[in-house]
TrEMBL record:
KW Transferase (keyword) present: yes
Claim: Ligase is one of the keywords in the record: no
Domain called Glycosyl transferase family: residue spans: 189-347
Domain annotation Glycosyltransferase subfamily 4-like N-terminal: ranges: 14-173
Organismal lineage: Bacteria, Pseudomonadati, Bacteroidota, Cytophagia, Cytophagales
Keywords, comma-separated and alphabetical: Transferase
GO molecular function list: glycosyltransferase activity
Official protein name in the record: Glycosyltransferase
Length: 401
């Protein structure tokens, strides 16, 4: 049987790299031939080599520049024409814009995964520009695969993409074979409570709010320590973060750690008593899913992506204000039974709905659909009906319209 060739294109790493690594690891290699186009990445190159997947390294600037973007567009067009893929799977904002145009011009079907809608990163005129570019890209878009239902809603009701052009497949993580029988760690794990986040020092991740929350928690629990893992990778707010830490006088209890490889990141998560995420927006954060997988109780922002996952007081806490963050963290630190229950519920939920070995089968059918729409009209996919918009409600999948 001839393999279906999928060409992946991205200019981003971080969560997008995790998304691509999960696909490489779990997709059926007997059915699919993958090739990855991305910026240089040691961890991604290692995964590609391990699974015999070709990796082409190309730098695509994150910022818009007419000259360099025109060159990137031509390079992508030529690559797509040369590779002749069955489907071009394009990830993130900049590559998503150029990739959709180059795929359409080259005459090959594309599947676009935003991993967080681009214009949400900005305000004012810059936000309007990015929104206009996304609206323009509609005319070059074949299909969209979002990683959360809230992300799909934005693309439908704000950008104006057609509902029947969008499929939703929740971000997923790898679980060990014996996961269901693993014993969850008792709480608290540490003599001095360890609260942590994984975030770049950028406006999207809102690290200044995280520092403020840390200050107020420390006023009640001075023995607690806060950690931020993610420095050294787009440190736009590093100076402001350090200044605020010093102004609050919590430098001895607030620790900034450099971005690290996936293994070290997983070890960091496993060491936490509470995981916190203060993002302004997300697609669907892997750090949240990985923390839930580890049984760590999570306190996150009530933003796109997080709201698809967290049920307040059941498997985590979704917060809008500083006060809500502080209260949720204090409740978990002061009630070990509650913390253990929240962590275990999160682990159970993530195993059921965010399991890469299960969801890769759905992704396979989506690839078949995009590659050959006539054949795939007959494909029946568990949990998702194509040409419809699905949402998770009360842990059950239902279909709208």
């Amino acid at each position: 049987m001839k393999k279906i060739k999928i060409l992946h294109i991205t200019q981003s790493l971080g969560g997008v790299e995790t998304y691509i690594r999960e696909i490489i690891t779990h997709i059926d290699k007997e059915q699919f031939d993958l090739k990855i186009i991305s910026p240089p990445s040691k961890t991604l190159s290692e995964v590609c080599a391990q699974h015999n997947v070709a990796h082409i390294e190309i730098d695509i600037s994150r910022n818009f520049n007419p000259f360099s973007d025109s060159i990137s567009l031509i390079r992508l067009y030529r690559l797509i024409k040369r590779e002749r893929p069955s489907c071009v799977h394009i990830h993130s904002s900049k590559a998503g814009f150029l990739g959709r145009i180059s795929s359409k011009l080259a005459g090959y079907p594309s599947l676009f995964t935003p991993n967080g809608v681009s214009y949400l990163s900005f305000t004012g005129m810059k936000r309007l520009i990015y929104f206009t570019l996304e609206s323009f890209a509609k005319f070059f878009t074949d299909r969209i695969l979002t990683v959360s239902y809230s992300e799909a809603n934005r693309l439908i009701y704000e950008v104006g993409h057609k509902q029947n052009s969008i499929d939703v497949l929740l971000n997923s993580v790898t679980f060990p074979l014996n996961y269901s029988s693993l014993q969850r760690t008792n709480y608290p794990k540490n003599e001095h409570p360890k609260i942590g986040t994984i975030a770049r020092l950028t406006p999207q991740k809102n690290p200044l709010l995280y520092v403020t929350v840390a200050y107020h928690v420390i006023q009640t629990h001075p023995e607690s320590h806060f950690y931020l893992l993610g420095a050294g990778f787009h440190d736009h707010l590093k100076t402001e973060v350090i200044d605020l830490i010093n102004r609050y006088g919590i430098a001895d209890q607030f620790h900034i750690l450099d971005w690290c490889d996936p293994k070290a990141s997983s070890e960091f998560i496993n060491s936490l008593d509470v995981f916190v995420l203060t993002s302004v927006f997300e697609g669907l954060p892997y750090s949240l899913l990985e923390s839930m997988r580890a049984g760590v109780p999570c306190v996150v922002s009530a933003c796109d992506g997080c709201l698809d996952v967290v049920r307040n007081g059941e498997n985590g806490y979704a917060c809008l204000t500083k006060e809500q963050y502080v209260k949720a963290i204090l409740d978990l630190l002061e009630n070990p039974i509650l913390a253990k229950r929240i962590g275990e519920n999160g682990a159970s939920y993530s195993y059921t709905f965010h399991n890469s070995s299960k969801n890769s089968k759905i992704l396979s059918e989506i690839y078949k659909k995009v590659s050959n729409p006539e054949w795939s009209d007959e494909v029946q996919v568990k949990n998702l009906e194509f040409n419809s918009f699905a949402m998770v409600k009360d842990h059950e999948v239902t279909t709208l319209g």
